[in-house]
Amino acid sequence: MSTASQRKQELREKVLAERQQISAREWKKKSELIISSFMNTGFYQEAKTVHTYISMNQRREVCTDKLVEDILKGGKRVVVPVTNFEKGTLTHSVISSISDLQKNKWGVDEPKHITPIDEEALDVIVIPMAAADRAGNRLGYGKGFYDRFLGKTDALKVGLVFDAFLFDEIPTEEFDKKLDVIISENEVIFA
Predict the structure, then answer these.
(1) How much is the pTM?
(2) How far apart are CA 168 and CA 95, in angstroms?
């Protein structure tokens, strides 16, 4: 394991442990602030197709429940990822309702039936993460699913992160893909 890889893993473990300590009330309040900031951006308001992760709320990811509802109500097309763990890839599926989702064998909400969409059709991609830095670098969960996906699209790449996990600099490796925008409960950063 490279030094950068080791530093990333150590930071990931620290951040994820700290994130689990956030109270339900604080997590919900901060998530709402982040989602509200995102929905007030011009790029979101102009987007026709928004790809977003479905938050793993038990792991205290920034909650995207309200975002998914808003995209659906606003007449935009909502696309969610479907994970292929064997291939290490993501497939992308349009959903028309929250009821289109069910838990997969890892407890992650994914579409019951996949309605595939091409990456070129995406305007904005909302990306999960453990941490980020002000230069647009993202610390993911270590499997590379999003880095492989983000390398194939020109869509605007937006990361949602709690301010406590927004650093001046995080370790990176050559295959890590940068984000265009980072949104915390306190600020919107164009990287």
Answers:
(1) 0.94
(2) 36
